[in-house]
Design goal:
globular, mainly alpha, single chain, 7 helices, about 160 residues, about 0% strand
Length: about 160
């Protein structure tokens, strides 16, 4: 029980709220592509096949990546188990940068003149995730509500 308290502990921090919502809202469509097939994605089965057969990722890690992007983004949006959700998203971004984007250089493919996307987006997402692992969910999060700590008047929780 003490471990759970440490995982959900957070302060009434609006900067954590902004980071959490930004990362969660950006990651959700990527997770929905992989898990549900929304937004032109392959869905769960197609993504698992791509990860395991084309990229050589072991099935357990492919599953964890899909779960981290989909369920992690939802966890970030609502602020539930924020540190765990952020850790999963952060690890997924670092692995994606190293396995699929490193060879494309730093920059995103803004002008369509390179083979694929660079890794600048992944650095931003991983940095946001690290901040949330450190700070927790912040203001207006489920974690904040469950931790029961007072905000001292800075928010309504």
């Amino acid at each position: 029980m003490e471990l759970v308290k440490k995982i959900i502990a957070t302060k009434c921090d609006y900067s954590a709220l902004v980071i959490r919502l930004g990362l969660g809202l950006v990651m959700f469509p990527h997770g929905a592509q992989k898990f549900l097939g929304w937004y032109g994605g392959f869905g769960f089965e197609g993504t698992m096949n791509h990860f395991t057969q084309n990229m050589g990722i072991p099935a357990v890690f492919a599953f964890l990546a899909i779960a981290a992007e989909f369920f992690g983004s939802i966890g970030l949006i609502v602020g539930g188990l924020t540190r765990i959700a952020a850790f999963g998203v952060g690890v997924t971004m670092v692995v994606a940068a190293c396995m699929a984007h490193l060879d494309n250089g730093f920059f995103m493919n803004w002008f369509g003149n390179q083979q694929g996307e660079g890794f600048e987006y992944h650095i931003l997402a991983a940095s946001m995730a690290i901040a949330l692992v450190i700070k927790g969910g912040g203001a207006l999060s489920i974690d904040k509500k469950l931790s029961g700590s007072s905000c001292g008047g800075c928010c309504s929780q």
